Amino acid sequence: MHRLILILAGVAIPALASADSTERQAFVSVLGGYSLAAPPEATEWSEFDRGPLVGLSLAWDRAPPEYIRVRGEQLGRAELVPEASVLVTGRTGTLLGGVRLQLAITQYEVGLFRASSRGKVWLAPRVGVGSMASGLVYGGDLGVAFHTGGIEIGGWMGVYGWKQSASSERMDLYGPQMLQVQAGLIFSSSDL
Question: What is the pTM (predicted TM-score) of this model?
Fold first, then answer.
């Protein structure tokens, strides 16, 4: 587990050091969705701890490339985006940090319907601490967001795992190992 933290730190530090301060800015995101948590061997619906999930995320990011007003033009930019998140589901909370491996895409009047769009797709490995975990929470998520003026709207899905603390009220019910699947909507803006 310590190797994973060192690898993530090794990836995040160069991403921060190479950040162009004129282009990158803090993006604040509000997350809302649903969470299912259970031991990996769970087979019945009654074994799942489920409920709504809310969260807040801060990313050192930038908007997708601007449109080049040439029909059929497509631009893409791969980048590393440091991010920290707080997720709350029921009575449990999790603080996560990681680096998004992100592709920002822009297209202008592409295809039969001449669609123009700006957006991002990412894969984000993350590590953190949780209120019910005895050690680290680890996992990641996959997401997509469309840029519409000053805000970004999208969706994400994540999978996380941890070992429960011995003092957890769920230890007798679920056992020591937990796996959580999350999904929801994300609303982001740098104009706060």
Answer: 0.78
